[in-house]
Specification:
Blueprint (H helix, E strand, L loop, with lengths): L2 H6 L19 E2 L6 E2 L6 E3 L10 E3 L6 E4 L4 H21 L3 E5 L2 E5 L1 H10 L3 H30 L6 H12 L5 H15 L4 E4 L1 H19 L2 H15 L14 E2 L10 E3 L6 E3 L9 E2 L6 E2 L6 H21 L3 E5 L2 E5 L1 H10 L3 H30 L6 H14 L5 H12 L6 E5 L2 H18 L3 H11 L2
Antiparallel strand pairs: 1-9, 2-3, 4-5, 6-7, 6-8, 10-11, 12-13, 14-15, 14-16
Bound molecules: zinc ion (2 copies).
One zinc ion binds next to loops.
């Protein structure tokens, strides 16, 4: 079915009678594998396969979520870029980024040094967080992507291939090399008034690495990867016999949700399957990727409420307590997040000041207020602005990781601005609370199931 026809023939609005099902006459026999279901609102978009031409996107007409984006030659391009990223990884993290010189004294450091110094200053939690998000997860992302695309390129499927692609999917937002690059630029801007900065090989390798990592996300077509994995598995007859095989409904219609049609969509690989209630404590597994199958994320609202409230509690000490201590000629001075922002505005670096203000204060506040709005909207079963709320949630998901910026900046300044008695920079307790805020809001976004917005609105229509 051509893309434009498939999308335009759908009427996504709630039916006027208030009932969610449509006339049986317009229904078609079920082939759950061929269904197109929106993962963000659970609506069945098409009852047959939808062809998405290369360079086009399939967008859900109800919640505006991009369901699929078809890319050109995704396997070879992903393989080439992930290999380049792996080659650049070691020099980017272990070579000297830059040297700071002031009054004949100098200090230099690599990305790895900035993490090592956090461990030395006994900020173990923050050090682990920076180590994981700044180094380990980006490395895992590249390695997993390289191994999966190599398997697909050689048309060989190992037992680990679906497992590796599933873990790439989960780690995608936790690898934060792009945020780290912006942190390097912020650190440079902060120091360039008072010190001479000499850029070193590590700096240029890191820029190359970030460009390659952004490239991998642009060329990767996860949907095509999963389809190839499934085709190879079918060839080798490796399909798990324990696939959930509940009795499928006879007929299914567009405009129904997958849940109402007795189906479940895998949150990782988006495969649609007949749903079978599993015994308590035992979740059914997706036969394609091995991920857990739930029609809705269990305990989604309670977990999200708890995490948002934790973020609110941590937000105050994160902003009131100093995040770093600067010692100039033996005189200590503490600096909060707001002090750092004021410094940039007063010294004329409005762009950087605005970036830190946005990443450190506006983004966490926006995430907390946005998630509260969504939670209250579900609680009150509100019907209005549903598409806007769905877009708001995806925006919150997108901006979440950028709050780590200030944590990275502090760790870099500690590594690069240690000039003995003249001046030293050390982390302070506020940075730990700030990390808690970032983590709470990121986990809150992960635990929130946006399909509940539409369920709540429907339950208001059909009490
Ligand atoms: Zn949708
Ligand atoms: Zn799956």
């Amino acid at each position: 079915m051509p893309l434009s026809k498939a999308v335009t023939q759908l009427d996504w609005r709630f039916p006027p009678g208030g009932s969610e099902t449509v006339a049986v006459a317009s229904a078609v026999p079920l082939d759950s594998g061929a269904l197109t279901v929106c993962p963000a609102c659970d609506m069945i978009l098409a009852t047959g396969p939808v062809e998405v031409p290369v360079g086009s996107r399939l967008i859900c007409p109800r919640c505006r979520n991009t369901i699929r984006e078809s890319k050109k030659d995704p396997v070879r391009r992903t393989l080439a870029l992930s290999l380049t990223g792996l080659i650049l990884f070691l020099p980017a993290h272990f070579l000297i980024l830059m040297t700071f010189k002031v009054f004949g004294m100098q200090d230099q450091g690599s990305v790895f040094d900035s993490i090592r110094i956090l461990f030395r200053q006994d900020y173990i939690f923050v050090a682990f967080l920076v180590l994981l998000t700044g180094m380990i997860f980006p490395l895992l992302r590249l390695a997993l992507l390289f191994l999966v695309s190599l398997d697909l390129y050689r048309q060989r499927l190992s037992r680990l291939t679906p497992f590796m692609l599933r873990w790439y999917h989960h780690l995608e937002e936790w690898g934060m090399s792009e945020v780290y690059l912006i942190a390097i630029l912020v650190a440079v801007t902060k120091m360039h008034h008072s010190t001479l900065i000499i850029y070193d090989k590590g700096f240029f390798c890191f820029i190359g690495l970030v460009a390659v990592m952004i490239g991998t996300t642009l060329v990767l077509d996860e949907h095509a990867f999963w389809e190839r994995i499934e085709a190879l598995a079918a060839q080798k007859k490796q399909r798990s016999p324990a696939a959930p095989a509940g009795p499928p409904p006879d007929r299914v219609s567009p405009r129904q949700t997958a849940m109402a049609a007795g189906l479940v969509q895998c949150r990782t690989c988006h495969k649609v399957l007949p749903f079978r209630q599993s015994p308590p404590g035992l979740a059914a597994r997706c036969p394609r990727c091995g991920g857990r199958l739930h029609q809705r994320r269990p305990q989604s609202l309670a977990t999200t409420w708890a995490l948002v409230l934790s973020a609110i509690i941590f937000f105050l000490p994160a902003n009131l307590m100093p995040i770093m201590k600067v010692e100039f000629l033996g005189v200590p001075k503490s600096s909060t997040i707001m002090d750092g922002i004021t410094y940039f505005f007063q010294s004329g670096s409005f762009g950087i000041g605005l970036i830190i203000l946005t990443a450190s204060i506006l983004v966490p506040l926006f995430k907390i207020i946005g998630l509260l709005l969504l939670l209250l909207s579900i609680r009150c079963r509100r019907l209005n602005w549903l598409t806007h709320k769905a877009v708001l949630f995806r925006f919150i998901e997108f901006i979440g990781r950028w709050s780590m910026l200030d944590v990275f900046v502090v760790s870099l300044l500690c590594a690069l601005a240690d000039f003995g008695f003249f001046t030293t920079i050390k982390t302070a307790a506020g940075v730990t609370f700030f990390s808690f805020v970032v983590l709470s809001t990121m986990f809150a976004t992960i635990s929130f199931d946006p399909r509940l917005l539409w369920d709540a609105a429907l339950s208001n229509l059909n009490p």
